[in-house]
Structures are given as C-alpha cells and as structure tokens.
Amino acid sequence: MYVTIPELAEYLSMNEAKVKSLVLQGRIRAIHDGEQYLVNKSQFTTHFEQVEKYKLMIQEYLNEPIPEDIDVKDED
C-alpha cells in the first residue's frame, strides 16, 4: 500500500519535513509520480517487528535478578 509523505509522517509519528528529508536522501525508498512522492508502507513492518523484539529482549534482561556471588567477602 502506497502512502504520501504526510500520511507516512503520521504513521511513523515523525515530523513531515524529516520524513521528506529522509526520502530525498534515499534512506526511505519512494517513487515520484510527477506530483508527489509515494512510499510503500510495508517496508516498515520489518523495522517495527525488530524494534518490538529488541524491546522484549531488553525487558527480559532488566527483569533478570542479579545472582548472589559467593566469592564476595566483606572487608570491613
């Protein structure tokens, strides 16, 4: 599904000028139909899946208890 830059900016929760800049830099793939840039929205699904995966990994790491170290000696 192709969307315009304003629609993509809303979808990504980004500033429209920043999205247009990324399109012009070639960091977001888009086609120009003579009037406006059109972006395939499905190219971001993999990105969002990876972001969710990394959020879960970080949360699991932060929830893991710190193991008790038996070699620690109190030197007071």
Automatic annotation (TrEMBL):
Pfam families: HTH_17. It comes from the Bacteria. Residues 2-49 form the Helix-turn-helix domain. InterPro entries: HTH_17, SinI_DNA-bd. GO terms for molecular function: DNA binding. This is Helix-turn-helix domain-containing protein.
